[in-house]
Amino acid sequence: MALLYQYIVLNSISIVSLLERKEQFHDIIDVRTPDEFLIDHIPGSINLPVLSSEERAVVGTLYKKDSFEGKKLGASLISKNIASHLKEFFKDKDRSHRPVVYCQRGGERSKSLATVLSRIGMKPLVIDGGYKAYRRHIVRSIDELVSKVSFRVLCGLTGCGKTKILKHLSSLGCQVINLEELASHCGSLLGANPNVTQPSQTLFESKIFFSLEKITPEKIVYVESESKKIGDRHIPNSIISNMRNSHCVWIESSMENRVEFLLKDYNFFTKDSSKLQEIMKKFSSYIGKKEYATINDALTNEKWESFVTALLKNHYDPLYEKSINKNFPLIRESKRVKLEQFGNDADIYYSTAEFINKTLG
Fold first, then answer.
1. Measured distance CA(126)–CA(15) in Å, rounded
2. Cα–Cα dist 331/218, whole Å
3. Gap between the Cα atoms of 152 and 154, Å rounded
4. Cα distance between the two ends of the chain
5. pTM (predicted TM-score)
């Protein structure tokens, strides 16, 4: 297969051109293994692997021992899988079908499928540099796009509803980047939803890139104050640097309101306290023995309001205040908005977002 495509001229396309002209092509085909595809892929692409994850491992092991035998096995497996794709996916495609094909580096896997499609009479394109070129573009572009963005950072103690306010700002037409939503995590040790898996680091960065791409640089972009990591995912340094040098809005809320908000927002923990008890063991390193005993006692007896109040007072509040004062130098000049000023509105978080949009936007 490798020899065959050396004698056939395969047209290629750069990743930049592809992203600008995606709608001109019928399909973007990722021929890598399902495992590689799951980690990250070009948005909108479909997975038609020419080697399964298991097949690729077997071929790779054999290739290290005997390159000729490895290539021979690889060619036979690739041929078998391409034949399967022709019978199924390409069954109803005619000669006008114009797919874009890519693998990890734009090498033999993508060229193998493209060669066969070309011989049939279709007009495939191969991405120069494959997925690796896409990754380089994402990393480089994030830094370039962030340099043009003006952030307005929502700050406030845990439970004041920053993320909810951020979503309402978006519904009001404001520009928003919700990093926690992109990371599928709410931050902190308790931020993981047991029913949701975080995206890979590379997929997280891809999501950030496509969010930034929609931004109009002349308008403010609202974000939530974050540490360098959300769960296990690292926020790109350029975003952290920009955020920490941006103007802030401080959201104030009473302890009572914050406790009530958190009990509603994290109700999956109160429904199954065993998961919460397991996570709380990690807190013992960060909280004094006496304070930890108080928190743990409230948890064991399922005194939820006491548990959340003690956790905020003894861990989250002091930790957040220390971090925000250290990392956000403009916090002292921040505009302050108190949730309680909106009284008993049906949704004080929407009212807060509306106020921020009208007075600070």
1. 10
2. 23
3. 7
4. 59
5. 0.86
| CATH of the structural domain 4-136, one choice from 3.40.50.2000, 3.40.250.10, 3.30.720.200, 3.20.20.150 | 3.40.250.10
Domain ranges of the chain: 4-136, 149-359
Secondary structure class of 214 (helix, strand, coil): coil
Nearest to 27 by CA among 112, 124, 164, 106: 124
Residue 361 has a pLDDT of 65
pLDDT for the residue 343: 66
Can you state the angle between helices 348-359 and 162-171, rounded to 10 degrees? 60
Mention the CATH class of domain 149-359. Answer: alpha beta
Under 8 Å between Cβ of 249 and 152: yes
User: d(Cα 192, Cα 38) in Å, to the nearest integer?
Assistant: 20
CB-based contact 218:302 (threshold 8 Å): no
> What one-character DSSP code corresponds to residue 315?
I
pLDDT band at 7 (very low <50, low <70, confident <90, very high): very low
Going along the chain, which residue ranges are E strands? 11-13, 27-30, 46-47, 99-102, 125-127, 151-155, 175-176, 221-224, 229-230, 233-234, 247-252, 335-338
On whether the CB atoms of residues 330 and 248 are closer than 8 A, the answer is yes
